[in-house]
Amino acid sequence: MTDATQPEEPSADAPAPSTDDELARAGVLYYVVRWGLGPLARLIYRPRIEGSRNIPRSGPIILASNHLSFIDSFLLPQFAPRPVYFLAKSNYFEGSGVKGWFSNRFFRALGATPVRRGAGQAALDALDQQRKILEAGRAIALYPEGTRSLDGRLYKGRTGVAFLALETGAKVVPVGIVGTNEAMPVGASWPKLSPRVTLRYGEPIDLAHHGPASSGRARRAATDEIMSAIHALSGQELANAYNESPAQNPVERLKQVLPHERR
């Protein structure tokens, strides 16, 4: 008999769920979590929401935000005026037992879809997932810096966001988040109750004038325009460097030193 607390394991021959399946599965749960956690989050953080009218209510759109804390991915979809989907580390979806099942369902309800982090094929797969979501006319949230800022500065943007915008024609809404690094600093197990956070949404940016997605120059220029808009909203000190994860071996250190395009 199947344990009622856990989803039935798919067979080895079962096809992987499509992006449309993932989005449909999250649909109802998204609103359950939104209306359940939204009032609580408003009570705790008393967020200042500025410029929400800048988010188009329909059609493909990319919310490109700075990234200061783990809770950014909770607040962005909670306070947007339409469903927003984002990618999350695959290990959030792969746990076992009741805890693993709950984590899987919770993150899907937030609008998250799993992705394996890394370079090469993993990075291409992530871009393909995001492209399919945009082509379905939905909104996605991305962090051009690639990962959280550990020192509160705004790092250089990677070109994946610009690539998606130029390839799909989606406009980019820049987002400046303020205060989440104080509400839940890096390394904290639980968020604090006192700091007030701010989410600022800028006007949509059409990046088409930079050129085609196939042009590295166009991707770089479009990325710099996005990061300039985010900086104007967040007011962070500029790092003028990429937010690189610590190199694990000599090959990775060499890759970070040599010129290459950061996706």
Automatic annotation (TrEMBL):
The keyword Transcription regulation does not apply. Residues 1-20, 241-263 are annotated as: Disordered. It holds the Pfam family Acyltransferase. Residues 252-263 have a biased composition (Basic and acidic residues). Keywords: Acyltransferase, Transferase. InterPro entries: Plipid/glycerol_acylTrfase (IPR002123). GO terms for molecular function: acyltransferase activity. Residues 61-180 form the Phospholipid/glycerol acyltransferase domain. Transmembrane segments: none annotated. Residues 7-18 have a biased composition (Low complexity). The keyword Metal-binding does not apply. CDD domains: LPLAT_AGPAT-like. This is Lysophospholipid acyltransferase family protein. It comes from Microbacterium dauci.
